[in-house]
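4.2 Preliminary Data

To establish feasibility before requesting continued support, the project team ran the inverse folding procedure on a target of 475 residues. The structure was first converted into the token representation described in Section 3, and no sequence information of any kind was made available to the design step. The complete token record follows.
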């Protein structure tokens, strides 16, 4: 017998208050759940319209379900399924960008949130500045109907200003250092190039609270969809999978102070997110990326597989203990050693199949935030960084498109063609390191010079010994 399709249940549907740009699995497994809980706890019109900036696939999957979907928690005690109904509908921006702008300019919209990944901000990760040569930015400067997330924010703000409305709060939920200030700078830069007065108005009146988000959300696989059917008896074309742990830290700085009652459902509303953000970027994301490249080269499919290998688990503990924690100042009341122990347990959760290949994507955008900052702090104090140097060497190997056994790698990165060309042209490991360190979009020149000896040594060991042996013998 055919299985009944998941659909929205009876009852009142909350009015729209949030537009979310980039409605991928992470936000649906994290922010959308918090917002649903906040409305259930304290009310408010905070329904979400998701906007896909590229593909219609999420819209096509969710539309027959009225925007509802299943969140499948995978914990050590077994799976738990729940239906999330805070998303009302999904729009596809390339199909009708004008309709998206009209919605964002509606006074009912008080928050525009984003999860567009690092590369979606069209910036230069090494400098944090808007990439004025990015094709989407060039388009958005020349046309009133935008393509980029930053362009949609700017043009919607332009419409609101022209109508005498207040701006919305821009709530970025991506893993970027000082993400609120970064996005504020990108938006105001683009706005001033459109209209200097618009840029000034945004800078004065809009709000860009910084955030820290944390939940492991692997890509949904066919077996996850089958498990949802077995647990619920309903066919869901777009479930999301997540671990039990979640954390959301937000600077409490919203336009007019208007926001959902997120504090009632466990969100940490704080004056300064920076210490939490840095801790998470370096301790979770930095080790995640290190294990992704080295684990992939060692033949491990997932992070849980990496942590089941005693060599890689010991390598991760060494990263935290010797190279990352000494370079951090913890948030008040946080024990970094205890945080590392909790991360180790989360990484080892066998129910979460977070693929190393998935985490490895877009590394040229991720490395500056996740790894290079820690390297710079340690090198400035003379602290040895053999494990992080090995992680950088593993990234350099990975983006060359061929693994240590000579097998092709399906690399996904905005700089993929350039990185591959530089790698192919290098006659030996040392030359490859020198060529890739010269990519200034990733490595600031002064840091590249300081990194070169250690990363060259790490690369030579990696090529000679293989990934697992290189990790085992690191000192």
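Position-by-position output of the design step:
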């Amino acid at each position: 017998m055919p299985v009944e399709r998941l659909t929205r249940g009876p009852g009142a549907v909350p009015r729209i208050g949030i537009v979310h740009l980039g409605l991928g699995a992470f936000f649906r497994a994290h922010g959308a759940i918090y917002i649903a809980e906040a409305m259930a706890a304290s009310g408010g019109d905070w329904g979400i319209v998701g906007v896909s900036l590229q593909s219609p696939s999420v819209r096509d999957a969710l539309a027959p379900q009225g925007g509802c979907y299943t969140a499948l928690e995978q914990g050590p005690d077994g799976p738990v399924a729940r239906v999330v109904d805070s998303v009302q509908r999904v729009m596809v921006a390339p199909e009708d960008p004008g309709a998206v702008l009209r919605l964002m300019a509606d006074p009912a919209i008080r928050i525009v949130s984003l999860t567009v990944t690092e590369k979606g901000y069209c910036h230069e990760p090494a400098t944090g500045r808007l990439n004025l040569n990015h094709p989407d930015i060039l388009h958005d400067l020349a046309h009133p109907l935008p393509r980029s997330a930053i362009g949609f924010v700017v043009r919607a703000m332009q419409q609101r200003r022209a109508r005498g409305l207040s701006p919305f709060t821009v709530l970025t939920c991506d893993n970027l250092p000082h993400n609120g200030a970064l996005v504020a700078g990108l938006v105001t830069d683009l706005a001033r190039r459109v209209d200097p007065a618009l840029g000034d108005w945004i800078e004065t009146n809009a709000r860009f609270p910084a955030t820290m988000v944390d939940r492991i959300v692997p890509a949904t696989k066919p077996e996850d969809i089958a498990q949802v059917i077995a647990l619920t008896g309903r066919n869901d074309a777009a479930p999301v999978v997540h671990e039990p742990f979640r954390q959301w830290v937000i600077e409490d700085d919203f336009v007019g102070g208007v926001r959902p009652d997120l504090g009632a459902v466990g969100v940490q509303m704080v004056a300064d997110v920076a210490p939490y953000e840095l801790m998470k970027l370096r301790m979770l994301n930095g080790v995640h990326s290190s294990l992704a490249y080295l684990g992939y080269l060692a033949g491990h499919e997932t992070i849980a597989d990496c942590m089941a290998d005693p060599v890689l688990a010991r390598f991760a503990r060494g990263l935290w203990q010797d190279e990352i924690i000494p370079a951090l100042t913890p948030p008040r009341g946080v024990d970094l050693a205890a945080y590392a122990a909790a991360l180790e347990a989360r990484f080892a959760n066998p129910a979460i199949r977070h693929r190393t290949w998935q985490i490895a994507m877009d590394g040229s955008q991720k490395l500056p935030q996740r790894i290079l900052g820690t390297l710079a702090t340690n090198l400035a104090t003379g602290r040895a960084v053999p494990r992080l140097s090995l992680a950088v060497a593993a990234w350099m190997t990975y983006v060359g498109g061929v693994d240590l056994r000579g097998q092709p790698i399906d690399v996904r990165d905005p700089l993929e063609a350039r990185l591959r060309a530089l790698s192919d042209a290098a006659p030996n490991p040392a030359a490859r390191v020198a060529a890739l360190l010269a990519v200034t979009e990733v490595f600031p020149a002064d840091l590249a010079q300081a990194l070169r000896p250690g990363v060259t040594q790490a690369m030579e060991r990696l090529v000679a010994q293989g990934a697992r042996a290189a990790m085992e013998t690191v000192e």
